[in-house]
Write a structure and sequence with these properties.
Elements lengths: L1 E2 L5 H15 L2 H7 L8 H12 L4 E2 L2 H20 L6 H16 L4 H18 L4 H15 L4 E3 H5 L15 E2 L9 E5 L5 E6 L6 E2 L30 E3 L1 H4 L6 H4 L5 H13 L12 E3 L5 H10 L17 H10 L19 H7 L1
Parallel strand pairs: 2-9, 4-7
Antiparallel strand pairs: 1-9, 3-8, 5-6
Helix pairs in contact: 4-7, 4-12, 5-6
C-alpha cells in the first residue's frame, strides 16, 4: 500500500537507483571491506534503516520491522541451505546479479556495482574451504535466535510453525562430492579392497556443473535469486521462541564496553554516505501491510526486545556537522574517558544528542 501519490515506474526506478547508489557508495564499500568483527544486531539494523530511507520512500516503524524481518529470515534461509560453505559467495553473486538487472539502464550505478563485484572476487575467491566454513558458521551464529515465521516459507513448507527451517533430504549434492550410498574400504597401502552399498532416505543427484565465481556466468545455485514466482502478500509473525527472547537479548540492553567503539565506527561509516534529497519532496510512504490498521496493530504488539530504537545519525545535512563528526571520529581508537570529563564528542550518544 502506498500513500501521498500514485506510484509510477519512474518513481520505482528512482527509488531503486537512489538506494543502490547509496548502498554501493565507494566510501561505504571501503569501510565494509576493512577487516572487522561482525556487526551487532543493532548496528546492522541502523545501517539497514539508513539504506532503506536513502530515497523518497518512507516506512513507519511497523513496516520497517516487517521488511527487516523478511530480509533477515530470507538471508538466514539462504545461508543455512548452502550445499557447501563456499556457496555463500554464489548466493552473494546472485544478489548482485539481481541488483544489476534493476539498474541496467543506469551505467554510472552499474559501474559501482561491478566495482564491488570485482572486489568481492578478488577478496573471497582465493579463500580456502575452511575459511568459508568459518564465515558461514559466524553468520549462522548471528541468526540462530531469530525464528520469525514468513508466510512464503510456510506456504512452500520450507519453514515449520515454530519458525525453524526444514532442511531438504533430496536434490543435488554439493559440487565435488558423490551421491551417498557407497562405502569403500581401503587397506594400509591405500588400495581399495571392498565395497558396500546402503540405501538412503533421500533422492540425491550429482550436480551437472559448478556455479561460476566470475563477474559473468551461470551461478547454477538458485539460492539468492528472486523467491517470488507469483505476486503474493508476505506476512511475518513472531514465533514463540522469538517472543521469549528477552533473556537472550540482554546483551542488547546491558552496557557493552565495546558499544562506544562500535557506534563511533558506525557513525564514520554512515557519515560518508552522500544522499541527495530534493527540496520540498515529502516522498512516498510504503506500507507493507494490507491496511493501516494492521500496520498499527503490528507496531503495538511487537515484543519490545525486537523493536529496535534506531539512532538517526545526520552527518550529511550540513558541512559543519560533517566536519565536526569527521574530526571526532578520525580514528577508530577511542581513548578511555577522563575522570570528571563529559565534554561534547567524547561519547557518540552525547554528540548526537547535541546535534
Amino acid at each position: 500500500m502506498l500513500r501521498v501519490d500514485e506510484w509510477t515506474d519512474v518513481d520505482r526506478k528512482r527509488v531503486m537507483n537512489d538506494i543502490i547508489s547509496t548502498m554501493f557508495n565507494r566510501k561505504f564499500m571501503e569501510e565494509l571491506f576493512k577487516p572487522q568483527d561482525l556487526y551487532s544486531k543493532k548496528a546492522l539494523r541502523t545501517v539497514y534503516d539508513r539504506l532503506a530511507h536513502a530515497s523518497i520512500m518512507r516506512l513507519n516503524q511497523a513496516s520497517m520491522d516487517k521488511l527487516y524481518d523478511l530480509m533477515t529470515m530470507a538471508f538466514k534461509y539462504q545461508v543455512l541451505l548452502c550445499p557447501r560453505p563456499r556457496d555463500v559467495l554464489l548466493v552473494t553473486f546472485n544478489h548482485l546479479d539481481a541488483i544489476k538487472d534493476f539498474i541496467s539502464d543506469s551505467p554510472g550505478i552499474l559501474n559501482q556495482v561491478d566495482e564491488t563485484f570485482r572486489r568481492l572476487i578478488e577478496t573471497y575467491n582465493p579463500l580456502s574451504d575452511g575459511e568459508f566454513q568459518l564465515i558461514r558458521q559466524t553468520l549462522l551464529i548471528f541468526f540462530q535466535d531469530m525464528h520469525i515465521r514468513v508466510s512464503i516459507f510456510l506456504k512452500d513448507k520450507v519453514q515449520n510453525s515454530n519458525g525453524r527451517f526444514v532442511l531438504p533430504i533430496s536434490g543435488p549434492v554439493p559440487w565435488g562430492t558423490e551421491v551417498p550410498g557407497l562405502i569403500r574400504i581401503f587397506n594400509h597401502k591405500g588400495v581399495e579392497v571392498k565395497r558396500a552399498e546402503f540405501s538412503t532416505a533421500g533422492n540425491y543427484v550429482t550436480p551437472q556443473r559448478e556455479g561460476s565465481f566470475e563477474l559473468y556466468g551461470d551461478r547454477v545455485l538458485k539460492l539468492g535469486t528472486n523467491m517470488y514466482s507469483v505476486t503474493r502478500p508476505v506476512e511475518t509473525h513472531m514465533s514463540g521462541s522469538s517472543k521469549n527472547l528477552a533473556s537472550q537479548a540482554k546483551e542488547n540492553i546491558a552496557p557493552n564496553p565495546l558499544a562506544k567503539e562500535e557506534l563511533n565506527f558506525l557513525a564514520r561509516l554512515l557519515g560518508g554516505l552522500d544522499i541527495q534529497k530534493p527540496a520540498g519532496d515529502s516522498g512516498f510512504r510504503l506500507n507493507l501491510f494490507t491496511t493501516d490498521e494492521e500496520e498499527e496493530h503490528a507496531a503495538q504488539t511487537r515484543p519490545e526486545e525486537l523493536s529496535y530504537k534506531v539512532i538517526n545519525i545526520e552527518a550529511t545535512q550540513e558541512p559543519a556537522r560533517r566536519a565536526e563528526l569527521s574530526r571526532i571520529l578520525g580514528e577508530l581508537d577511542v581513548a578511555e574517558p577522563r575522570p570528571g570529563s563529559a565534554g561534547k564528542g567524547e561519547d557518540l550518544l552525547a554528540l548526537m544528542d547535541g546535534l
